[in-house]
Automatic annotation (TrEMBL):
GO terms for molecular function: N-acetyltransferase activity. PROSITE patterns: GNAT (PS51186). It comes from the Bacteria. Keywords: Acyltransferase, Coiled coil, Transferase. Gene3D superfamilies: 3.40.630.30. SUPFAM superfamilies: Acyl-CoA N-acyltransferases (Nat) (SSF55729). Belongs to the acetyltransferase family. Pfam families: Acetyltransf_1 (PF00583). This is GNAT family N-acetyltransferase. Residues 13-40 form a coiled coil. CDD domains: NAT_SF. Residues 1-162 form the N-acetyltransferase domain.
Amino acid sequence: MIRAATVEDVAEIRAMIRELAEYERAVEQARATEEQLREALFGEHPAAFALIAEDDETGEAVGYALWFPRFSTWTGTRGMHLEDLYVRPYARGGGYGKALIASLAAVCERHGYERFEWWVLAWNEPAIDFYKSLGVEFLDEWTVCRLSGEPLRELAAQVPADLGQTPAL
């Protein structure tokens, strides 16, 4: 039911990303191309990893989870950030979401990741209820910050050109 994504899954992953963006009322923001996803997931230095949920009978991809490692200065260990968890509407309630989350928890355990974190939209009550059923801790005292677009460019322009070598991630 759950397997690691392969390069052959890129088109289907992109399609599900668009479906998720539509559900989240932000389809215009989902601009990633198949080429970008192929490089990010399967290039020389992957930026992220993905799991696919398949229907056992049809073999059809019914969901995916996309994640990447993070690091905690407090624990001194890596953790996992879940960027996307999506199950197609007709397959919801079939255990795919829980199977994807459980598979990711197993990856955390296998690699010694002490934290497994993600964001959820405040209005997405079905997802919040699902996460609560898993025992998820909600960190209400934290606020997500984002710098992008013109403010990001303006701030970056304030740094001298001789910043020096920065790592390519």
